[in-house]
């Protein structure tokens, strides 16, 4: 069921939000928000994505705004702190923004950095947690198989829950998974699920132990649930660095997963310096609530993108809508 383009445009707003720490190479997050009969929803593919990829995110946004959310199994979601590739001295200040989180996801393999930078950051995260709590890594495919093997050997002493997307391809994930199996080190797949034309390939190839699933990049809550069920692997629901509106879509996805064994990557509103609501979906005692979010008119105005950027997003929406309608 597709609403009309003018339906969507009648409530659409574009906002530009500063980040409090640089993350995946950006300092500001631009997103489009609009309201459907089920509530507010978010369309926020990253700027460099082409229309083919972005139209999957639009399908997700429309699904969340126009279709009732599926049945839920829980009303709050335990979340991990997300630690960008900052210097070791900055780790404690960033982690203070994630109150009560017992799990930290540390970004590693950042272009331009070394394994020594990763070791220092992970050591600082372990020092912050103490002997309790869990640390997982996310390399965003930044290592080849040999580099991943060396890095995992260097970082394993800090006690790791899993390593997310250590290498870019499914074949490499299968290889590194075999190489570190003797250590009991699980491998999670993220880009191999959300950026693949065949999101189940990684599961069929037995190249991962855990799947990261994201609502917007996978075309919405129902499609993400379907992929998880067909893969038959444990899942971690994670964000795409959305506002609280987009995070609410992720929270409903996490709530609808029948078995949720891992803390979810849905605390990323804490990486934004401002949001679109005065009541943001940030962690309280390590969990976020499962609820819809209504943006405040004052914040939509205060954070409104300039006319050039707003026109760019409207044109993107129109092109993606045409792809979906076809
Ligand atoms: O999973 C988390 O802790 C937060 C989400 C996150 O890391 C992320 C956010 C935006 C884009 C990509 C990623 C990623 O998991 O690679
Ligand atoms: Mg990832």
UniProtKB/TrEMBL annotation:
The active site is at residues 107, 214. Pathway: Quinol/quinone metabolism; 1,4-dihydroxy-2-naphthoate biosynthesis; 1,4-dihydroxy-2-naphthoate from chorismate: step 4/7; Quinol/quinone metabolism; menaquinone biosynthesis. It catalyses: (1R,6R)-6-hydroxy-2-succinyl-cyclohexa-2,4-diene-1-carboxylate = 2-succinylbenzoate + H2O. Coiled coil: none annotated. InterPro entries: Enolase-like_C_sf, Enolase_C-like, Mandel_Rmase/mucon_lact_enz_CS, Mandelate_racemase_C, OSB_synthase_MenC1. Pfam families: Enolase_like_N, MR_MLE_C. Mg(2+) binds at residues 138, 164, 190. Belongs to the mandelate racemase/muconate lactonizing enzyme family. MenC type 1 subfamily. This is o-succinylbenzoate synthase. It comes from Lacisediminihabitans profunda. The gene is menC.
């Amino acid at each position: 069921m597709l609403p009309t383009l003018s339906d969507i445009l009648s409530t659409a707003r574009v906002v530009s939000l500063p980040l409090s720490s640089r993350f995946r190479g950006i300092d500001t997050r631009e997103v489009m928000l609009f309201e459907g009969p089920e509530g507010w929803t978010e369309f926020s593919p990253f700027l460099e994505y082409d229309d083919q990829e972005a139209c999957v995110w639009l399908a997700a946004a429309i699904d969340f705004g126009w279709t009732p959310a599926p049945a839920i199994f829980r009303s709050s979601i335990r979340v991990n702190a997300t630690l960008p590739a900052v210097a070791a001295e900055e780790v404690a200040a960033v982690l203070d923004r994630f109150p009560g989180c017992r799990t930290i996801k540390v970004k590693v393999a950042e272009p331009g950095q070394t394994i020594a930078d990763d070791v220092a950051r992970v050591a600082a995260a372990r020092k912050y947690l103490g002997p309790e709590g869990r640390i997982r890594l996310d390399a965003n495919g930044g290592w080849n198989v040999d580099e991943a093997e060396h890095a995992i050997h260097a970082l394993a002493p800090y006690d790791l829950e899993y390593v997310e997307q250590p290498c870019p391809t499914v074949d490499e994930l299968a290889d590194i998974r075999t190489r570190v199996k003797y250590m009991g080190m699980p491998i999670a797949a993220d880009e191999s699920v959300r950026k693949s034309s065949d999101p189940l390939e990684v599961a069929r190839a037995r190249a991962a132990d855990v799947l990261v699933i994201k609502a917007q990049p996978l075309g919405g809550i129902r499609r993400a649930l379907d992929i998880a069920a067909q893969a038959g692997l444990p899942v971690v629901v994670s964000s795409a660095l959305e506002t609280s509106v987009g995070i609410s879509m992720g929270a409903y996805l996490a709530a609808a997963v029948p078995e949720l064994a891992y803390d979810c990557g849905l605390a990323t509103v804490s990486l934004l310096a401002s949001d679109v609501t005065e009541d943001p979906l940030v962690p309280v005692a390590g969990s976020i609530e499962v609820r819809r979010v209504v943006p405040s008119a004052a914040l939509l105005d205060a954070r409104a993108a300039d006319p050039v950027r707003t026109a760019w997003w409207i044109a993107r929406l129109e092109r993606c809508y045409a792809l979906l309608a076809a």
